[in-house]
Amino acid sequence: MKAALIAASLVVAVHFGYSPHDGAHLSIRGRTEALKQIPAASSEKKPAPDFVLKSLDGPMLRLSDFRGKAVLVNFWATWCTPCKVEMPWLVELYRQYHAAGLEILGVSLDDAGEEARIAEFVKKHKVNYPILIGNDAVAGFYGGVRYLPQTFFIDRQGNIVRSSLGFRSKEDFDGSIKQLLSENH
Amino acid sequence: MKNIVITIVLAFGSMIISLLPGRALAQASKTDAAAQHESPFVCDRLALTPDIRKRHFDDLEPKIRALKTGVRELPDGYEFSFPADQTTFALVAEWVIQERLCCPFFDIDLRLEREGGPLWMRLTGRPGTKDFMKVDGKAWLKQ
């Protein structure tokens, strides 16, 4: 069985490209079909679906309890590398703008039963904003959140004013947060 | 045994096809097409089942990192060397297939160096990809 698997792997390798000069060579450059269907980031304004989720610290948190604040709902997972790049920036931006009315809710979409891993990650990265244990139901309210990271910018009235899909720069976050804080203040 | 013979025959068949002149051009076209559909830097959380994700991150990844024998920095990524034995090749190939599903922004090359050289796994991509690798890098990039 093992030998068959190895042989099959070699089939894949030579099928993708073989040069007698360079040795066996496997190259993967294609995008999956699903990726072509990734929705673009949205700036359409609509009410943010409310949810109640358990926080990593224990208490249940309800999104609508943050009405009156500018809220970033950031969907992430411990295994998601682009999420890990963004996280220290969110920590810094939360420190910078929390007093001005910014709230960040990090909704983890790690697999069920991974709370210890999430807690370890949060401690290691010194995450200073609430982390919530997400689930597919809440992800469903926000379009399924198949791809991570995804961030929803919610104004003080509880409307999603912007959403972003995938990694974005710290400057982008900073600009969007400033705009969010200045709107309807 | 019969299965192995069949797969080896298929392998040589594929190799011959790959040497046909039109193939290089076809591959270049595919690459161009992929570039036109570049996705944001995202991870697909539905690409792997929880069990496979666990195997990928908790089992396979530490295993192949431990098997790594060297690292080369490239302008757009990194290249890692491994022993070119069958077991290592199978582990790396399994990791690669899963990695490209959940983290689709990588270009991935596997190369068996001539004259009994090592197995090389090259992870590259468009600008920004290398920065992502540095984030998870300590374990991967240390020589």
Overall description:
The complex is a heterodimer of chains A (185) and B (143). With 185 residues, chain A is α+β, with helices and mostly antiparallel strands. Chain A has a single domain, classed as 3-Layer(aba) Sandwich (Glutaredoxin), CATH 3.40.30. Chain A has helices at 2-16, 81-97, 115-124, 136-141, 170-182; strands at residues 18-19, 23-28, 46-47, 52-54, 60-62, 70-76, 102-108, 131-133, 147-148, 150-154, 159-165. Chain A is globular, with a radius of gyration of 20 Å. The termini of chain A are far apart. Chain B is α+β, with helices and mostly antiparallel strands and 143 residues long. In chain B, helix 3 packs across helix 4. The longest helix of chain B has 18 residues, at 50-67. At the A-B interface, helix 1, strand 2, helix 2 and strand 9 of A face helix 1, helix 2, strand 1, helix 3 and helix 4 of B.
Q: How many beta-strand runs of chain A?
A: 11
Placed side by side, the strands forming the largest sheet of chain A appear as 3-11-10-6-7-8
- Proportion in β-strands of chain A: 25-35%
Mean pLDDT of chain B: 80
Alpha plus pi helix count of chain B:
6
Helix content of chain B: 55-70%
SSE order of chain A in H/E notation?
Answer: HEEEEEEHEHEHEEEH
CATH topology of chain A: Glutaredoxin
Q: How many structural domains in the coordinates of chain A?
A: 1
- Quick one: overall form of chain A? globular
Beta-strand residue percentage of chain B:
15-25%
